[in-house]
């Protein structure tokens, strides 16, 4: 399977779309926003104030979170520069994702979104240009010394490819029982990809340019990878019931790695193009932000409601990959069974958690002799 051909979030605005099932990622954005604000303030303190601020959002996907990123950056720049300049700079936003991303739905909502910003910012708001920049961020996307800010939210845990020839026959990813050589193969693929990503972005950012990243992380908690284990168990059940073929499961591995703080820091320091300003880990429940649209005075939601929320956002993220491997006809049954396993697990442990890494970097300026 060519990862770049099938890796994208569920498109559109339907019940299983990423646009309607990305509240967990939104919660991460809310938590990380103060560090994004700090990064932009630092950018303005170490570089000449640009008349045109060029920003790339890498792995932008589609839906309200993408537009929220644009709004947050414009608002932070406004607050940061209000005492220096009565008028905001011209903005250029480059929205990047793989070619299968739902850019159509994203850009259909852009016109109304920009009108809302114009109304809020009134005469301070100047031209704002938004472009699609399709392609993999594991290759060059922009000219040298072009960008002022690179933003990437919850996407860098995706690898350019899954490690090959793992012999991981009954699981779609790493588990507590995976052999050491499998862990090593995934770790080395992450190190290779992340190092390349940093090198490429260092060429595209201006000296002193800022980069702000959030990605799936890992700490020592053994349940961090429980989702992959539950999906693997579900698929194994379906193999035993002759609903899918064993060879399909045996040949599939998620192209994803959840790095520790130490692993990410080691790659950043080894690559050497950036100064690390912040590297933090936050841990959230799997159903973080579920209460946003639910009126629940006691904050005690039914386990089925919690499990359905969790299953839907996993489906929004994983379905295109799983559908390409196992077939569309299996998806409804797969995620219904996954939801039921999540209910069982919640009954046993009460809390399921995911770790997120928040990284703030600044491109090193060349040494002057």
How is the secondary structure organized here?
Blueprint: H1 3-6, H2 23-46, E1 52-58, H3 64-81, E2 90-96, H4 103-108, H5 110-121, E3 128-132, E4 147-153, H6 180-204, E5 205-217, H7 226-240, H8 246-250, H9 261-271, E6 274-285, H10 303-326, H11 331-349, E7 353-363
Parallel strand pairs: 1-2, 1-4, 2-3, 4-5
Antiparallel strand pairs: 5-7, 6-7
Helix pairs in contact: 2-3, 6-9, 7-11, 10-11
Measure the end-to-end span.
Answer: 50 Å
Biggest sheet: strand arrangement: 3-2-1-4-5-7-6
> How many helical elements?
11
Number of strands: 7
Order of helices and strands: HHEHEHHEEHEHHHEHHE
Q: Poorly predicted ranges (pLDDT <50, ≥5 residues)?
A: none
Q: Please, what is the average pLDDT?
A: 83
Description:
The protein has 369 residues and is of the alpha/beta class. The chain is built from eleven helices and seven strands. It has helices at 3-6, 23-46, 64-81, 103-108, 110-121, 180-204, 226-240, 246-250, 261-271, 303-326, 331-349; strands spanning 52-58, 90-96, 128-132, 147-153, 205-217, 274-285, 353-363. It has a seven-stranded mixed sheet with strand order 3-2-1-4-5-7-6, with helices on both faces. Helix 6 links the parallel strand 4 (147-153) and strand 5 (205-217). Helix 2 runs parallel beside helix 3, helix 7 crosses helix 11 (331-349) and helix 10 (303-326) packs antiparallel against helix 11. The longest helix is centred in the middle third of the chain and has 25 residues, at 180-204. The radius of gyration is 21 Å and the shape is globular. It starts with a helix and ends in a 6-residue tail after the last strand. The mean pLDDT is 83.
């Amino acid at each position: 399977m060519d990862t770049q051909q099938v890796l994208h979030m569920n498109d559109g605005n339907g019940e299983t779309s990423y646009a309607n099932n990305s509240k967990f990622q939104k919660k991460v954005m809310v938590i990380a926003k103060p560090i994004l604000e700090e990064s932009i303030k630092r950018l303005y303190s170490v570089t000449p104030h640009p008349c045109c601020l060029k920003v790339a959002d890498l792995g932008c996907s589609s839906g309200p979170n993408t537009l929220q990123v644009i709004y947050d950056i414009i608002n932070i720049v406004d607050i940061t520069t209000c005492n220096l300049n009565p008028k905001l700079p011209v903005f250029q936003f480059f929205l990047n994702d793989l070619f299968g991303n739902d850019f159509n739905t994203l850009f259909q909502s852009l016109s109304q979104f920009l009108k809302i910003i114009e109304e809020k910012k009134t005469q301070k708001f100047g031209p704002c240009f938004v472009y699609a920049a399709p392609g993999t961020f594991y290759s060059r996307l922009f000219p040298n010394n072009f960008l002022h800010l690179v933003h990437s939210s919850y996407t860098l845990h995706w690898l350019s490819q899954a490690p090959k020839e793992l012999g991981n026959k009954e699981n779609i990813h790493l588990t507590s029982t995976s052999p050491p050589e499998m862990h090593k193969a995934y770790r080395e693929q992450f190190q290779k990809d992340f190092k390349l990503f940093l090198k490429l972005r260092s060429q595209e950012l201006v000296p002193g340019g800022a980069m702000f990243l959030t990605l799936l992380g890992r700490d020592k908690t053994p349940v961090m990878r429980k989702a992959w284990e539950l999906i693997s168990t579900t698929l194994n059940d379906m193999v035993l019931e002759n609903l899918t073929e064993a060879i399909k499961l045996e040949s599939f591995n998620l192209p994803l790695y959840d790095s520790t703080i130490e692993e990410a820091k080691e790659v950043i320091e080894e690559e050497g193009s950036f100064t690390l300003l912040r590297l933090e880990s936050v841990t959230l429940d799997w159903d973080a932000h579920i209460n946003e649209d639910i009126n629940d005075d006691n904050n005690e939601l039914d386990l089925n409601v919690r499990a359905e929320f969790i299953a839907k956002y996993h489906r929004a993220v994983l379905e295109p990959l799983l559908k390409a491997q196992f077939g569309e006809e299996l998806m409804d049954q797969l995620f219904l069974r996954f939801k039921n396993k999540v209910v069982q697990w919640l009954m046993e442990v009460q809390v399921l958690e995911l770790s997120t890494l928040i990284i703030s970097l600044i491109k090193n300026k060349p040494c002057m002799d």
